[in-house]
TrEMBL record:
The protein's name: NAD-dependent protein deacylase
Function: NAD-dependent lysine deacetylase and desuccinylase that specifically removes acetyl and succinyl groups on target proteins. Modulates the activities of several proteins which are inactive in their acylated form.
Organism: Pacificimonas pallii
EC code(s) of this entry: 2.3.1.286
Binding-site positions, NAD(+): 13-32, 92-95, 177-179, 203-205, 221
Protein's gene: cobB
Places the protein is found: Cytoplasm
Cofactor(s) needed by this chain: Zn(2+)
Keyword Cytoplasm listed: yes
Length: 230
C-alpha cells in the first residue's frame, strides 16, 4: 500500500462476498425468488407477510454453512491485525465472513444474519437456525416475538455515531464491492473526502458513485484487495 495514511476507513458491500458464493443484490443474480431486496427487506413486508421475510433470512442464514471467507476477507483481516494506525471496517453485509476471517475493528451497519432481537424486550440474541417455524425469546421467554437483527429499508443503520467519527478523522477511505445504491453508506465517500481523506474504489465495475473517488480500480475483490493491502 503506497503513501502513509494513518486512519483508514473501509466500506464493504455484497461484492466482497461474491467470490465466496453469496449472490449480490443488484447483479444479474440479484433477485430472490423474483423479489428485489428493497421489496422484502422492509418493516411493511414483515408485517404483510412475515413468513416470506423470515424464509428470506432463514435460507440466507442456512447458506452461511456452505460458504467461506475469500482472499479479500483474509487480506482485510490481516491488514486489521497488522495496521498500527486507526482502522474501521464498515460492512453493509449481513453475512459473517469478515468475522470468520478474523477482522476485529469492524461494524455491521445493516445488522447480522446470525442475530435476532425480541420485539417485546428488545434483547438481542443469536438467531435460531429457522425462525419461521416459531421462536422463543432467550431473554423474556415470549413466543414468536423474535425478528431478524437486520436493518431494513426505512430503518436507521447501526453504529452511525462511530461511523461518523471515523469518517471525520480518516485520511484514507476505501470502498470495496458496493454499487453505491444504498444510503447512507453511498454518501460516506463524500463525507470522507470533505474531511480531507484520499478515496479509492475497488469494485468489479464503476459504481454509481465512482465519480466521487480520487482513484478507482476495477476487477474482482479477491484479486484487487490482496494486491492493494500488500
Ligand atoms: C435510512 C439489509 C433513515 C437487508 C440493507 C424511501 C423510503 C425509505 C428510505 C429511503 C427511501 N428512498 C431512499 C431511502 C434511503 C434508503 C435507500 O438508500 N434506498 C435505496 C434503495 C435508494 N436507505 C435506507 O432506508 C437506510 N435507512 O435511510 O434510514 C432513517 C433516518 C432516521 C430514522 C430512521 C430512518 C437503510 C438501508 C439499509 C437497508 N438494508 N441490507 C439485507 O441484507 O437483507 S441494504 C442492502 O443493499 C444490503 O445490505 C447491501 O449490502 C446493500 C447495498 O448493496 P451492495 O452491498 O452495494 O450490493 P449490490 O448488489 O448493490 O452491489 C454489489 C457491487 O459489487 C456491484 O457494484 C458489483 O459490481 C460489485 N461486485 C460484484 N462482484 C464483485 C464485485 N466487486 C468486486 N468483486 C466481485 N467479485
Amino acid at each position: 500500500m503506497t503513501g502513509k495514511p494513518r486512519n483508514i476507513v473501509i466500506l464493504t458491500g455484497a461484492g466482497v462476498s461474491a467470490e465466496s458464493g453469496i449472490a449480490t443484490f443488484r447483479g444479474p443474480d440479484g433477485l430472490w425468488e423474483g423479489h428485489r431486496v428493497e421489496d422484502v427487506a422492509t418493516p411493511d413486508a414483515f408485517r404483510r407477510d412475515p413468513d416470506l421475510v423470515l424464509r428470506f433470512y432463514d435460507l440466507r442464514r442456512a447458506a452461511l454453512a456452505d460458504v467461506h471467507p475469500n482472499p479479500a476477507h483474509e487480506a482485510l483481516a490481516e491488514l486489521d491485525s497488522a495496521w498500527d494506525g486507526e482502522l474501521l471496517l464498515i460492512t453493509q453485509n449481513v453475512d459473517d465472513l469478515h468475522d470468520r476471517a478474523g477482522t476485529a475493528r469492524m461494524v455491521h451497519m445493516h445488522g447480522e444474519l446470525t442475530r435476532a432481537f425480541c420485539r417485546i424486550c428488545q434483547e438481542r440474541q443469536d438467531a435460531p437456525p429457522e425462525m419461521r417455524s416459531g421462536t422463543v425469546c432467550a431473554s423474556c421467554g415470549a413466543e414468536n416475538t423474535l425478528r431478524p437483527d437486520i436493518v431494513w429499508f426505512g430503518e436507521m443503520p447501526y453504529h452511525m455515531a462511530r461511523i461518523d467519527s471515523a469518517l471525520s478523522s480518516a485520511d484514507l477511505f476505501v470502498s470495496i464491492g458496493t454499487s453505491g445504491a444504498v444510503y447512507p453508506a453511498a454518501g460516506f465517500v463524500r463525507e470522507a473526502a470533505a474531511n480531507g481523506a484520499r478515496t479509492l474504489e475497488l469494485n468489479l465495475e464503476p459504481s454509481e458513485g465512482t465519480m466521487f473517488f480520487d482513484e478507482a480500480r476495477h476487477g474482482p475483490a479477491g484479486t484487487l484487495v490482496p494486491a492493494w493491502v500488500k
